[in-house]
Amino acid sequence: MAESKISFPLMGCGTWAWGNQVLWDYEPSMDADLQQVFNLCVDRGVTFFDTGDSYGTGKFKGQSEKLLGQFNQAYRGHNADQICLATKLAAYPWRLTRRSMVNAGQASIARMGRIDLAQMHWPTANYAPWQEGALLDGLADLYEQGLIHGVGLSNYGPKRLNWVQKRFASRGIPIVSLQVQYSLLSTYPVTELGLKDLCDEFGIQMIAYSPLCLGLLTGKYSPQGPFPKGLRGFLFPRLRPGMQGLLDCLQEIAGLKDKTIAQVALNWCISKGTMPIPGAKNLSQAEQNLGALGWQLEASEVTALDQAASSVDRKMVQNIFQTR
């Protein structure tokens, strides 16, 4: 099986918010701040950037990829040769052939300048299993044609991962990464599915998206709010009241470590062998995320957090595309 050229730092940067007006209030006036975020992250060793060809809302569709391409081309500082541009290609209902997946990859390359890691954004097994094989074959074609350096998956469980592993292995193509929703409020893929063990067996890096659970694990929100608008405004009043014990545990450890709650939550993901990809819209948020690096939780602290998380009655809802 071919060896991947992809390397993973301890933490990456997610760019879902870059172009998303609906959930994250994006405006083009933010672009200068986002470029500063990119530059700071790369300089400090956070060189993995995750995006998707479906990112961006309305007229800003594809904006996240475009910005990453611009920022990467403009960057001339430390660690420039380590930058990894990773995108996820959507399993849209109208993408039905392997050629459509190759075309999608080429369109992303046109926006970004290059793709280092291309990932299947979600499996179709839960609603159209017949669609998935051709899209995966197209993803593999991108690799074989030398258009990308590695292939990855997103929102796959062990059963479906085994299926894809065999399909790709028959062509000598390694799966280098698998990202799932994973945080102290969303442990389902690991605790209930045992996904991390299978990833370790296959040599696959698990990537934790939404590691701060849309902001709930920052300690910013009280049980009474105020809460953000939109989807978060719907979820937070239902989740925040029942997680006080977990936040208390996070706060206690944060005090001992002279860190913030969010930094402890991110370090917990790292301690579990995953690479978290928190987002950042400005330098302050990027600095906050970077504070999760350069130290590690004690084993007893990880255990305490595990126990506090298990006591939370209402966890974060799972991605509807997550398979078993």
TrEMBL record:
Name assigned to this protein: Aldo/keto reductase
The keyword Oxidoreductase belongs to this UniProt entry's keyword annotation: yes
GO molecular function terms noted in the UniProt entry: oxidoreductase activity
Top-level division of the source organism's lineage: Bacteria
Annotated organism of origin: Romeriopsis navalis LEGE 11480
Chain ranges of the NADP-dependent oxidoreductase domain: 11-308
GO cellular component: cytoplasm
CDD domains hit by this protein: AKR_AtPLR-like
Keyword Iron: no
Keywords, sorted A to Z: Oxidoreductase
